[in-house]
Protein backbone atom coordinates (compact mmCIF):
# COMPACT_ATOMS: atom_id res chain seq x y z
CA UNK A 1 0.00 0.00 0.00
CA UNK A 2 1.23 3.49 -0.76
CA UNK A 3 -0.13 6.92 0.09
CA UNK A 4 0.30 10.28 -1.58
CA UNK A 5 0.38 13.80 -0.17
CA UNK A 6 1.16 17.00 -2.00
CA UNK A 7 1.80 15.03 -5.16
CA UNK A 8 4.37 12.75 -3.54
CA UNK A 9 3.97 8.97 -3.77
CA UNK A 10 5.27 7.15 -0.72
CA UNK A 11 6.21 3.50 -0.76
CA UNK A 12 6.44 1.17 2.24
CA UNK A 13 9.54 1.54 4.37
CA UNK A 14 12.71 -0.26 3.26
CA UNK A 15 16.25 -0.29 4.57
CA UNK A 16 17.86 -2.29 1.80
CA UNK A 17 21.58 -2.01 1.12
CA UNK A 18 22.52 0.24 4.04
CA UNK A 19 25.89 1.89 3.51
CA UNK A 20 28.11 3.91 5.79
CA UNK A 21 30.90 6.23 4.82
CA UNK A 22 30.26 8.52 7.76
CA UNK A 23 32.24 8.62 10.98
CA UNK A 24 30.12 7.92 14.04
CA UNK A 25 30.92 9.10 17.57
CA UNK A 26 28.86 7.33 20.24
CA UNK A 27 28.67 8.75 23.77
CA UNK A 28 27.87 6.57 26.74
CA UNK A 29 28.53 6.85 30.46
CA UNK A 30 28.18 3.60 32.36
CA UNK A 31 26.95 5.49 35.42
CA UNK A 32 23.77 6.67 33.69
CA UNK A 33 21.85 3.49 34.48
CA UNK A 34 22.52 3.84 38.20
CA UNK A 35 20.06 6.70 38.65
CA UNK A 36 16.38 6.20 39.43
CA UNK A 37 13.57 8.74 39.53
CA UNK A 38 11.80 6.66 42.17
CA UNK A 39 9.56 3.63 42.54
CA UNK A 40 6.68 3.69 40.09
CA UNK A 41 8.02 6.61 38.06
CA UNK A 42 7.75 5.91 34.31
CA UNK A 43 11.12 7.48 33.41
CA UNK A 44 13.81 4.86 33.85
CA UNK A 45 17.43 5.72 32.91
CA UNK A 46 18.08 1.97 33.00
CA UNK A 47 16.72 1.79 29.43
CA UNK A 48 19.90 3.54 28.22
CA UNK A 49 22.01 0.79 29.76
CA UNK A 50 19.79 -1.82 28.13
CA UNK A 51 20.20 -0.18 24.72
CA UNK A 52 23.96 0.01 25.18
CA UNK A 53 24.16 -3.68 26.05
CA UNK A 54 22.33 -4.53 22.81
CA UNK A 55 24.55 -2.18 20.80
CA UNK A 56 27.65 -3.88 22.16
CA UNK A 57 26.37 -7.44 21.70
CA UNK A 58 25.39 -6.76 18.10
CA UNK A 59 29.01 -5.73 17.53
CA UNK A 60 28.11 -2.20 16.46
CA UNK A 61 31.01 -0.82 18.51
CA UNK A 62 33.34 -2.04 15.77
CA UNK A 63 32.01 0.66 13.45
CA UNK A 64 31.96 3.57 15.92
CA UNK A 65 34.23 5.54 18.15
CA UNK A 66 32.93 5.20 21.69
CA UNK A 67 33.53 8.00 24.17
CA UNK A 68 32.67 8.85 27.72
CA UNK A 69 32.00 12.58 27.64
CA UNK A 70 33.04 14.88 30.43
CA UNK A 71 29.94 15.74 32.49
CA UNK A 72 28.54 19.21 31.87
CA UNK A 73 29.61 21.75 34.46
CA UNK A 74 27.43 24.32 36.20
CA UNK A 75 29.04 27.02 34.06
CA UNK A 76 28.14 25.16 30.86
CA UNK A 77 24.55 24.59 31.98
CA UNK A 78 24.24 28.32 32.71
CA UNK A 79 24.77 29.11 29.03
CA UNK A 80 21.00 28.47 28.85
CA UNK A 81 19.65 27.90 32.35
CA UNK A 82 19.66 30.55 35.07
CA UNK A 83 22.38 30.52 37.72
CA UNK A 84 19.80 30.24 40.48
CA UNK A 85 18.12 27.20 38.94
CA UNK A 86 21.36 25.34 38.25
CA UNK A 87 22.63 26.11 41.75
CA UNK A 88 19.43 24.64 43.17
CA UNK A 89 19.81 21.44 41.12
CA UNK A 90 23.39 21.07 42.32
CA UNK A 91 22.47 21.43 46.00
CA UNK A 92 19.12 19.74 46.51
CA UNK A 93 19.08 16.08 47.62
CA UNK A 94 16.43 13.74 49.08
CA UNK A 95 18.00 14.33 52.49
CA UNK A 96 17.83 18.13 52.46
CA UNK A 97 14.87 18.79 50.16
CA UNK A 98 12.76 20.10 53.07
CA UNK A 99 15.11 23.08 53.19
CA UNK A 100 14.29 23.89 49.56
CA UNK A 101 10.49 23.80 49.75
CA UNK A 102 10.03 27.25 48.17
CA UNK A 103 12.58 26.55 45.45
CA UNK A 104 10.89 23.26 44.54
CA UNK A 105 7.63 25.10 43.90
CA UNK A 106 9.40 27.88 41.99
CA UNK A 107 11.35 25.48 39.77
CA UNK A 108 8.56 22.91 39.34
CA UNK A 109 10.52 20.14 41.03
CA UNK A 110 8.30 17.65 42.85
CA UNK A 111 5.89 15.11 41.40
CA UNK A 112 6.71 14.57 37.72
CA UNK A 113 10.25 15.86 38.25
CA UNK A 114 11.22 14.44 41.66
CA UNK A 115 14.37 15.00 43.66
CA UNK A 116 16.42 11.80 43.60
CA UNK A 117 19.91 10.70 44.56
CA UNK A 118 22.45 11.91 42.03
CA UNK A 119 20.02 14.26 40.26
CA UNK A 120 22.69 16.80 39.30
CA UNK A 121 25.16 14.11 38.18
CA UNK A 122 22.46 12.58 35.96
CA UNK A 123 21.81 15.98 34.37
CA UNK A 124 25.55 16.47 33.89
CA UNK A 125 25.91 13.17 32.04
CA UNK A 126 23.00 13.95 29.72
CA UNK A 127 24.18 17.49 29.02
CA UNK A 128 27.83 16.55 28.65
CA UNK A 129 27.12 13.93 26.00
CA UNK A 130 25.13 16.31 23.81
CA UNK A 131 27.62 19.17 24.18
CA UNK A 132 30.56 16.88 23.50
CA UNK A 133 28.83 15.41 20.45
CA UNK A 134 28.20 18.90 19.09
CA UNK A 135 31.79 19.92 19.79
CA UNK A 136 33.18 16.96 17.83
CA UNK A 137 30.83 17.73 14.95
CA UNK A 138 32.07 21.32 14.99
CA UNK A 139 35.70 20.25 14.78
CA UNK A 140 35.01 17.78 11.98
CA UNK A 141 36.00 14.81 14.13
CA UNK A 142 32.81 12.94 13.27
CA UNK A 143 29.85 13.17 10.90
CA UNK A 144 27.20 11.83 13.29
CA UNK A 145 27.21 11.96 17.08
CA UNK A 146 24.89 9.78 19.18
CA UNK A 147 23.86 10.46 22.78
CA UNK A 148 20.94 8.27 23.80
CA UNK A 149 21.13 9.73 27.32
CA UNK A 150 20.11 13.10 25.87
CA UNK A 151 16.92 14.39 24.33
CA UNK A 152 15.36 15.94 27.44
CA UNK A 153 13.38 18.48 25.48
CA UNK A 154 10.88 19.81 28.06
CA UNK A 155 13.35 21.55 30.42
CA UNK A 156 12.99 25.33 30.46
CA UNK A 157 15.40 28.13 31.28
CA UNK A 158 14.51 28.08 34.98
CA UNK A 159 12.03 25.24 35.32
CA UNK A 160 11.95 21.45 35.25
CA UNK A 161 9.15 19.89 33.21
CA UNK A 162 8.06 16.52 31.89
CA UNK A 163 10.80 14.47 33.60
CA UNK A 164 13.42 16.89 32.22
CA UNK A 165 15.64 19.13 34.35
CA UNK A 166 18.49 20.34 32.11
CA UNK A 167 17.86 20.82 28.40
CA UNK A 168 20.84 19.06 26.85
CA UNK A 169 19.41 19.71 23.38
CA UNK A 170 19.51 23.47 23.78
CA UNK A 171 23.06 23.21 25.16
CA UNK A 172 24.07 21.10 22.16
CA UNK A 173 22.47 23.50 19.69
CA UNK A 174 24.22 26.46 21.31
CA UNK A 175 27.47 24.58 20.80
CA UNK A 176 26.65 24.00 17.12
CA UNK A 177 25.77 27.69 16.64
CA UNK A 178 29.39 28.58 17.33
CA UNK A 179 30.29 27.15 13.91
CA UNK A 180 27.01 26.77 12.01
CA UNK A 181 24.85 29.68 10.80
CA UNK A 182 21.64 27.62 10.69
CA UNK A 183 20.72 24.56 12.74
CA UNK A 184 17.64 22.39 12.22
CA UNK A 185 16.04 20.63 15.20
CA UNK A 186 13.68 17.71 14.45
CA UNK A 187 11.61 16.06 17.20
CA UNK A 188 9.75 12.73 16.73
CA UNK A 189 8.85 12.24 20.40
CA UNK A 190 5.10 11.81 20.95
CA UNK A 191 5.21 14.97 23.11
CA UNK A 192 5.79 18.46 21.75
CA UNK A 193 9.41 19.66 22.05
CA UNK A 194 8.32 22.77 23.92
CA UNK A 195 11.54 23.54 25.81
CA UNK A 196 13.65 23.65 22.66
CA UNK A 197 11.05 25.58 20.69
CA UNK A 198 10.71 28.16 23.46
CA UNK A 199 14.48 28.65 23.69
CA UNK A 200 14.75 29.56 20.01
CA UNK A 201 11.28 31.02 19.39
CA UNK A 202 12.59 34.48 18.50
CA UNK A 203 15.54 33.62 16.25
CA UNK A 204 16.03 32.42 12.68
CA UNK A 205 19.34 30.78 13.60
CA UNK A 206 17.46 27.62 14.63
CA UNK A 207 14.42 26.06 12.99
CA UNK A 208 12.49 23.70 15.26
CA UNK A 209 10.23 21.03 13.77
CA UNK A 210 8.11 18.84 16.05
CA UNK A 211 5.73 16.00 15.12
CA UNK A 212 3.58 15.30 18.17
CA UNK A 213 0.22 14.41 19.64
CA UNK A 214 -1.84 17.56 20.17
CA UNK A 215 -5.09 17.99 22.08
CA UNK A 216 -5.57 17.37 25.82
CA UNK A 217 -2.07 15.97 26.04
CA UNK A 218 1.10 17.05 27.81
CA UNK A 219 2.55 19.67 27.52
CA UNK A 220 -0.46 21.26 25.81
CA UNK A 221 1.65 23.29 23.35
CA UNK A 222 2.63 22.84 19.72
CA UNK A 223 -0.39 24.21 17.90
CA UNK A 224 -0.15 24.52 14.13
CA UNK A 225 -0.41 28.31 14.40
CA UNK A 226 2.58 28.58 16.75
CA UNK A 227 5.28 29.49 14.24
CA UNK A 228 7.61 31.84 16.12
CA UNK A 229 7.74 35.59 16.70
CA UNK A 230 10.01 38.44 15.64
CA UNK A 231 13.00 37.20 13.67
CA UNK A 232 11.80 33.69 14.46
CA UNK A 233 8.49 34.06 12.64
CA UNK A 234 7.86 30.88 10.57
CA UNK A 235 10.98 29.23 11.97
CA UNK A 236 9.02 27.08 14.42
CA UNK A 237 7.26 24.22 12.63
CA UNK A 238 4.59 22.26 14.49
CA UNK A 239 2.83 19.25 13.03
CA UNK A 240 -0.02 18.31 15.41
CA UNK A 241 -1.11 14.69 15.12
CA UNK A 242 -3.92 12.53 16.48
CA UNK A 243 -3.94 9.12 18.14
CA UNK A 244 -2.93 5.96 16.32
CA UNK A 245 -0.78 7.31 13.49
CA UNK A 246 0.95 4.43 11.71
CA UNK A 247 4.14 3.98 9.70
CA UNK A 248 2.78 4.83 6.26
CA UNK A 249 0.85 7.95 7.27
CA UNK A 250 3.69 9.20 9.48
CA UNK A 251 6.14 8.86 6.59
CA UNK A 252 3.67 10.59 4.28
CA UNK A 253 3.95 13.81 6.31
CA UNK A 254 7.48 13.51 7.65
CA UNK A 255 9.21 13.15 4.29
CA UNK A 256 7.61 16.12 2.48
CA UNK A 257 7.92 18.36 5.56
CA UNK A 258 11.62 17.67 6.07
CA UNK A 259 12.26 17.86 2.32
CA UNK A 260 10.67 21.31 2.18
CA UNK A 261 12.65 22.47 5.22
CA UNK A 262 15.90 21.35 3.64
CA UNK A 263 15.02 23.16 0.42
CA UNK A 264 13.93 26.43 2.03
CA UNK A 265 16.03 26.66 5.19
CA UNK A 266 19.28 25.00 4.03
CA UNK A 267 20.59 24.08 7.52
CA UNK A 268 24.27 23.22 7.88
CA UNK A 269 23.72 20.96 10.92
CA UNK A 270 20.84 18.89 12.30
CA UNK A 271 19.79 17.74 15.77
CA UNK A 272 17.36 14.80 15.79
CA UNK A 273 15.44 13.89 18.94
CA UNK A 274 14.36 10.23 18.79
CA UNK A 275 11.85 9.94 21.63
CA UNK A 276 10.71 6.31 21.83
CA UNK A 277 7.28 7.11 23.26
CA UNK A 278 5.93 7.49 19.72
CA UNK A 279 6.32 3.72 19.34
CA UNK A 280 3.35 1.39 19.44
CA UNK A 281 2.58 0.08 22.91
CA UNK A 282 4.39 2.78 24.83
CA UNK A 283 3.30 3.13 28.43
CA UNK A 284 2.54 6.86 28.05
CA UNK A 285 2.24 7.20 24.27
CA UNK A 286 -0.70 7.05 21.87
CA UNK A 287 0.91 6.51 18.45
CA UNK A 288 1.21 3.24 16.55
CA UNK A 289 4.68 3.34 14.97
CA UNK A 290 6.67 0.17 14.50
CA UNK A 291 10.40 0.11 15.14
CA UNK A 292 11.09 0.45 11.43
CA UNK A 293 8.55 3.24 11.02
CA UNK A 294 10.31 5.18 13.76
CA UNK A 295 13.73 4.37 12.32
CA UNK A 296 12.67 5.57 8.87
CA UNK A 297 12.85 9.13 10.22
CA UNK A 298 16.44 8.57 11.34
CA UNK A 299 17.38 7.05 8.01
CA UNK A 300 15.80 9.93 6.08
CA UNK A 301 17.60 12.59 8.11
CA UNK A 302 20.86 10.70 7.64
CA UNK A 303 20.37 10.67 3.87
CA UNK A 304 21.02 14.43 3.66
CA UNK A 305 24.62 13.91 4.78
CA UNK A 306 24.70 16.88 7.15
CA UNK A 307 26.56 16.93 10.48
CA UNK A 308 23.96 15.37 12.78
CA UNK A 309 23.55 15.06 16.53
CA UNK A 310 21.18 12.20 17.42
CA UNK A 311 19.73 12.13 20.94
CA UNK A 312 17.23 10.04 22.87
CA UNK A 313 14.19 11.42 24.68
CA UNK A 314 10.99 9.86 25.98
CA UNK A 315 10.10 6.19 25.87
CA UNK A 316 8.52 4.31 28.73
CA UNK A 317 8.34 0.69 27.60
CA UNK A 318 12.00 -0.05 28.20
CA UNK A 319 12.42 -3.14 26.05
CA UNK A 320 10.95 -1.36 23.00
CA UNK A 321 13.06 1.76 23.50
CA UNK A 322 16.22 -0.36 23.75
CA UNK A 323 15.24 -2.34 20.64
CA UNK A 324 14.56 0.77 18.57
CA UNK A 325 17.60 2.82 19.60
CA UNK A 326 19.80 -0.21 18.90
CA UNK A 327 18.26 -0.67 15.44
CA UNK A 328 18.71 3.04 14.73
CA UNK A 329 22.32 2.94 15.89
CA UNK A 330 22.80 0.15 13.35
CA UNK A 331 21.28 2.24 10.57
CA UNK A 332 23.54 5.16 11.46
CA UNK A 333 26.67 3.01 11.16
CA UNK A 334 25.36 1.32 8.00
CA UNK A 335 24.42 -2.08 9.41
CA UNK A 336 20.87 -3.40 9.68
CA UNK A 337 20.71 -5.58 12.79
CA UNK A 338 18.30 -8.31 13.84
CA UNK A 339 15.94 -10.00 13.74
CA UNK A 340 17.08 -12.28 16.58
CA UNK A 341 18.35 -10.58 19.71
CA UNK A 342 21.81 -11.79 20.79
CA UNK A 343 22.38 -12.87 24.36
CA UNK A 344 23.07 -9.85 26.53
CA UNK A 345 22.88 -8.69 30.14
CA UNK A 346 19.14 -8.08 29.88
CA UNK A 347 18.15 -10.94 27.61
CA UNK A 348 15.12 -11.91 29.72
CA UNK A 349 13.46 -8.54 29.03
CA UNK A 350 12.90 -9.49 25.40
CA UNK A 351 10.99 -12.73 25.87
CA UNK A 352 9.09 -14.68 24.85
CA UNK A 353 10.11 -14.28 21.19
CA UNK A 354 13.52 -12.55 21.67
CA UNK A 355 13.05 -10.66 18.41
CA UNK A 356 14.24 -7.11 17.75
CA UNK A 357 11.04 -5.93 16.07
CA UNK A 358 8.51 -3.58 17.69
CA UNK A 359 5.26 -4.31 15.89
CA UNK A 360 2.25 -2.03 15.46
CA UNK A 361 -1.06 -2.91 17.05
CA UNK A 362 -4.57 -2.82 15.58
CA UNK A 363 -5.45 0.52 17.18
CA UNK A 364 -7.51 2.90 15.07
CA UNK A 365 -5.71 5.66 13.18
CA UNK A 366 -7.55 8.90 13.96
CA UNK A 367 -5.49 10.83 11.37
CA UNK A 368 -7.60 10.99 8.24
CA UNK A 369 -6.10 11.69 4.83
CA UNK A 370 -8.00 14.97 4.70
CA UNK A 371 -6.71 16.08 8.10
CA UNK A 372 -3.07 15.29 7.35
CA UNK A 373 -3.23 16.88 3.91
CA UNK A 374 -4.69 20.09 5.37
CA UNK A 375 -2.00 20.32 8.06
CA UNK A 376 0.75 19.54 5.57
CA UNK A 377 -0.40 22.21 3.14
CA UNK A 378 -0.43 24.82 5.91
CA UNK A 379 3.06 23.80 7.06
CA UNK A 380 4.40 24.01 3.51
CA UNK A 381 2.82 27.42 2.99
CA UNK A 382 4.42 28.71 6.20
CA UNK A 383 7.80 27.38 5.12
CA UNK A 384 7.53 29.14 1.79
CA UNK A 385 7.44 32.44 3.69
CA UNK A 386 10.86 31.92 5.24
CA UNK A 387 13.85 33.68 3.80
CA UNK A 388 16.52 31.55 2.19
CA UNK A 389 19.32 33.20 4.18
CA UNK A 390 18.57 34.15 7.79
CA UNK A 391 20.28 37.10 9.45
CA UNK A 392 23.69 35.48 9.87
CA UNK A 393 26.32 35.93 7.17
CA UNK A 394 27.92 32.69 6.01
CA UNK A 395 31.33 34.31 5.59
CA UNK A 396 31.43 35.40 9.21
CA UNK A 397 30.98 31.99 10.78
CA UNK A 398 33.93 31.20 13.10
CA UNK A 399 36.51 28.94 11.52
CA UNK A 400 37.57 25.68 13.13
CA UNK A 401 40.23 26.35 15.71
CA UNK A 402 43.73 24.96 15.14
CA UNK A 403 44.38 21.57 16.68
CA UNK A 404 46.97 22.44 19.28
CA UNK A 405 47.41 22.22 23.02
CA UNK A 406 47.04 25.36 25.16
CA UNK A 407 50.38 26.91 26.00
CA UNK A 408 49.87 26.36 29.70
CA UNK A 409 49.34 22.62 29.19
CA UNK A 410 52.43 20.81 30.52
CA UNK A 411 53.64 17.35 29.61
CA UNK A 412 52.76 16.24 33.13
CA UNK A 413 49.21 17.46 32.66
CA UNK A 414 48.90 15.65 29.33
CA UNK A 415 50.13 12.41 30.85
CA UNK A 416 47.82 12.76 33.84
CA UNK A 417 44.73 13.02 31.67
CA UNK A 418 45.72 10.24 29.31
CA UNK A 419 47.50 11.79 26.33
CA UNK A 420 47.13 14.63 23.87
CA UNK A 421 44.03 15.73 21.98
CA UNK A 422 45.37 14.25 18.74
CA UNK A 423 46.02 10.93 20.46
CA UNK A 424 42.43 10.72 21.62
CA UNK A 425 41.02 11.83 18.27
CA UNK A 426 42.99 9.13 16.49
CA UNK A 427 41.95 6.45 18.95
CA UNK A 428 39.20 4.06 17.87
CA UNK A 429 37.90 2.12 20.84
CA UNK A 430 38.70 -1.53 21.32
CA UNK A 431 36.03 -4.05 22.25
CA UNK A 432 33.91 -2.65 25.04
CA UNK A 433 36.40 0.07 25.90
CA UNK A 434 35.31 3.50 27.04
CA UNK A 435 37.31 6.65 27.41
CA UNK A 436 37.00 10.19 28.64
CA UNK A 437 37.08 12.46 25.60
CA UNK A 438 39.29 15.51 25.91
CA UNK A 439 38.08 18.78 24.48
CA UNK A 440 39.88 21.40 26.48
CA UNK A 441 41.61 24.39 24.91
CA UNK A 442 40.84 26.69 22.04
CA UNK A 443 37.94 25.50 19.92
CA UNK A 444 36.93 22.89 22.47
CA UNK A 445 33.57 22.62 24.13
CA UNK A 446 34.82 24.29 27.32
CA UNK A 447 36.34 27.29 25.60
CA UNK A 448 33.48 29.52 26.68
CA UNK A 449 35.26 32.56 25.20
CA UNK A 450 33.82 31.61 21.83
CA UNK A 451 30.36 32.42 23.10
CA UNK A 452 31.40 35.82 24.39
CA UNK A 453 33.67 36.82 21.50
CA UNK A 454 31.51 35.65 18.60
CA UNK A 455 30.37 39.18 17.83
CA UNK A 456 27.58 39.63 15.33
CA UNK A 457 27.98 36.06 14.11
CA UNK A 458 26.59 34.57 17.29
CA UNK A 459 22.95 34.68 18.27
CA UNK A 460 22.49 37.43 20.91
CA UNK A 461 21.65 34.99 23.68
CA UNK A 462 20.82 37.61 26.30
CA UNK A 463 18.38 39.46 24.07
CA UNK A 464 16.75 36.28 22.80
CA UNK A 465 16.42 34.84 26.29
CA UNK A 466 14.63 38.00 27.38
CA UNK A 467 12.24 37.64 24.48
CA UNK A 468 11.58 34.02 25.31
CA UNK A 469 10.32 35.02 28.73
CA UNK A 470 7.68 37.16 26.96
CA UNK A 471 6.50 34.31 24.76
CA UNK A 472 2.70 33.96 24.58
CA UNK A 473 1.10 31.84 27.29
CA UNK A 474 -0.03 29.23 24.76
CA UNK A 475 3.58 28.35 24.02
CA UNK A 476 4.98 28.68 27.52
CA UNK A 477 2.29 26.81 29.44
CA UNK A 478 3.01 23.37 30.82
CA UNK A 479 0.75 20.71 32.31
CA UNK A 480 1.53 18.83 35.48
TrEMBL record:
It comes from Myxozyma melibiosi. This is Histone deacetylase. Residues 424-433, 442-455 have a biased composition (Basic and acidic residues). Its EC number is 3.5.1.98. Residues 390-480 are annotated as: Disordered. It comes from the Eukaryota. Gene3D superfamilies: Histone deacetylase domain. It is found in: Nucleus. CDD domains: RPD3-like. Residues 41-328 form the Histone deacetylase domain. Belongs to the histone deacetylase family. HD Type 1 subfamily. It catalyses: N(6)-acetyl-L-lysyl-[histone] + H2O = L-lysyl-[histone] + acetate. InterPro entries: HDAC_I/II (IPR003084), HDACs (IPR000286), His_deacetylse_dom (IPR023801), His_deacetylse_dom_sf (IPR037138), Ureohydrolase_dom_sf (IPR023696).
Amino acid sequence: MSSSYAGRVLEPISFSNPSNKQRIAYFYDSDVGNYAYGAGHPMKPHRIRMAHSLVMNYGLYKKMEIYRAKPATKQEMCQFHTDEYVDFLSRVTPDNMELFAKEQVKFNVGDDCPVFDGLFEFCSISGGGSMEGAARLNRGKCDIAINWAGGLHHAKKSEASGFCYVNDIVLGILELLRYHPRVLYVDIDVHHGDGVEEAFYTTDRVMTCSFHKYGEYFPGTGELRDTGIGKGKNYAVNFPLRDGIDDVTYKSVFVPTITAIMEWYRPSAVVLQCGGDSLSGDRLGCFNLSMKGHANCVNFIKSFGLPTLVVGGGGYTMRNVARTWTFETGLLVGQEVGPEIPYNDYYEYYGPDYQLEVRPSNMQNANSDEYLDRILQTVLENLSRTKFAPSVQMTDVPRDAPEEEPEEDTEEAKEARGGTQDAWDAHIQKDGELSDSEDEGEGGRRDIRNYKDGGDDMMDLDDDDDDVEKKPETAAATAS
